Amino acid sequence: MTLRVPKAELPTELRDSMIEQLGSVPEPVEVLWHHPELAKANQEFSAQVGSWDAVPADLKTFAHMAVASYVGCSWCLDINYFQALNQNLDMTKASQVPRWRQSDVFTPLERDVLEYAEAMTSTPPTVTDELHAGLLDRLGPKAMVELTVYIGFANFAARCNTAMGITSQGYSEACGIPLAPRPDSAVPAPTA
To answer: How confident is the model over 68-88, as pLDDT tens digits?
Structure first.
């Protein structure tokens, strides 16, 4: 897939900062910069979402990766796997998120979070009262609200990136364990 919107020229200071932080400029930033106010608002909200701490980082990162895998956003999957490495998360687990249903490395709570992420991502959403209540009971109201909004943000990012043709930039290549591919049988069928 190729970019459907060309990259915009970033201010030098922003470009240099991104390169210093990540080694390259993330394509979503370059694409969104055609609308600088929107790009700045997106960066600010993304930073706020990243600062929330009612839910452990591993659950949020794995949830975002589950959304990305489900939607087919290779960029989100790539950058979140890279972030898992930088957050010192369990890389064996992170590598298995695309095939979490077939993997035996996840705890019951992690499996429920991954299921919740996919259920929120389905069109229409398929979140059940039982799944939600089970997570609410274990996480509490504050964390449940945070997790839900975090997954909503992951959907926003994944769907925007995919629609604009933004794909993996190879950030995950720094990770020592290859990212498992999503099983063909787990790919959601298109909905009418």
So the answer is: 999 999 999 999 999 999 999
